[in-house]
Amino acid sequence: MKRLFLCLFLLGALFLSVSQAQESPIKSSLGTRWDSLGQVEKNSPNWEYVIPPKFGFGDIQVTGTPSALYFVVKEKGFWGMYDDSGKELIAPNKYVKEPKFTEDAIGVAYFNKDGKEVAIYIDKTGAQVVPGEFYMAWPFVGDYAGVFKGPGMDACFFVDRQGKAQTKEYGGCSTFFDGMAQLSYDKKLWGYLDKDLKVAVEPKYQRGQVFSEGLAAVFLPDNGKCGYINKDGSYQIEPKFKYCGPFAEGVAEVSEEAEDARPRKFYFIDKDGKQLFNGLIVYAEDAKFSNGLLPVRTIVEKVETCPGVVSDKYFLMGAINAKGETVVPFDFFEINSFNSEGYADAGYKDFFVKSSGKCVGKGKGISVKVSKTGKIYEEYAIVPALVDSSVPFWQKLVVNKGTKLDSDGWSRYGLSYFYNEEPEKVFIPPQFHRVIHLTGPYFKVEVEGNGNGPWGVIKVKE
């Protein structure tokens, strides 16, 4: 399991005590081991290729939106593009970076010119549709896009869809987030443009974050304190903090202590600045809700680290919901963000670590996955998607595993209907070397090999 770097610390209101060591709560895989096919199906009623299996793992990317989805592929050093039906739109013979499309049909692509990379705006066929060549270009958001003339991210300005400059050159700018773009005249003080390129907030802040959920954190130049402004520049929450995180699911993390405070205390507020979760205190920045859950770290008062040996105050992680209720118990060294299927990668506590047959009293993390209900499973367990029954059918699919190994020792994988309390039903028998969900009904699959490909993309059919 890849290493997790979520470092949140919680102190005070939540004190736990650990009883004598009990049987491990880690559950084995719930999934059925299905019979493997000897080879990939030639014709299947349940899936079809949209990208042929001839690319490397990192050479297939997704761009666009659900309503205008594209697959960009790299071949012999150049990027091309397919639509979501598998039709080739751009041949891989010109662009040296993957084309990126946002909510409309204009994308950004880079090609080599006189030994330098140049950015232009293209349509889905690869033809240039906006005049001008730039050092760097943001995607269009609405009628405008931010571009840069040269290295150092200097000379930033905004162009329309005819390539005409619609603003003067700024010392710095960003693309649009939540309908607002950052700007600076001199890279010292920052403000914001609205979607019509009007200066909505004059540059007067030491720095500012991008807008999120209608608010942006801004920092005063004289004392570094931060608060939150609305899109008209008025304060929603007055500057009184020394750290302000972005709002996510209506919650932001703040601190009133200096950056060099050890330990530095953080807590959570709503959009009215009201402190949440009964004064819950954490000890690291960048704590965010994901899919309704917030992983946090607390100090457990008593932990049995060896049989009969109890240690005081040990940092462990759990997760709370939007009401501040503990949903996942504080039994983990690490918990990553929760995904849309209701699970997070985690490191479950294991204290009875032995060396030369003796307990050393130091804990280690066992790589597991934990559900949003607090159940713990083996790292690679096949578990049901915890989703609403009304979601699209592909959200109810999980990767299954075959019963037999190939001659080279690799397992084969497919897909099963497996969600909530419903029994597992095979949908695609195990036949691929790996299966990874990309977006919507599309999955990246490895036909042969050990991670090196070839890889393609399939579309599942209900």
In short:
With 462 residues, the protein is an all-beta fold.
Question: Within the largest sheet, what's the order of strands?
Answer: 27-28-29-30-33-34
Strand proportion: over 45%
Please report the total strand number as a whole number: 40
Kindly name the structural category: mainly beta
Poorly predicted runs: 1-22
| Helix proportion | under 10%
Description:
The structure is a single chain. The protein has 462 residues and is an all-beta fold. The chain has one domain. It is built from no helices and 40 strands. It has a 6-stranded antiparallel sheet, with no helix packed on it. Strands 2-35-36-37 form a 4-stranded mixed sheet, with no helix packed on it. Strand 13 and strand 14 form a beta hairpin. It starts with 9 loop residues before the first strand and ends with a strand. The model is unreliable at 1-22 (pLDDT under 50).
Q: What labels would you give this structure?
A:
6-stranded antiparallel sheet, disordered N terminus, 462 residues, mainly beta, 4-stranded mixed sheet
What topology does this entry show?
Blueprint: E1 10-11, E2 33-34, E3 47-55, E4 60-65, E5 68-75, E6 78-83, E7 88-95, E8 97-101, E9 107-113, E10 116-122, E11 128-134, E12 136-137, E13 145-150, E14 154-159, E15 172-177, E16 180-184, E17 190-194, E18 199-205, E19 207-208, E20 216-219, E21 226-229, E22 235-241, E23 243-244, E24 252-255, E25 267-269, E26 281-282, E27 294-306, E28 309-320, E29 326-335, E30 343-350, E31 354-355, E32 358-359, E33 364-371, E34 376-378, E35 397-405, E36 411-417, E37 425-432, E38 434-439, E39 442-446, E40 455-460
Parallel strand pairs: 2-35
Antiparallel strand pairs: 1-26, 3-40, 4-5, 5-6, 6-7, 8-9, 9-10, 10-11, 12-13, 13-14, 15-16, 16-17, 17-18, 19-20, 20-21, 21-22, 23-24, 24-25, 27-28, 28-29, 29-30, 30-33, 31-32, 33-34, 35-36, 36-37, 38-39, 39-40
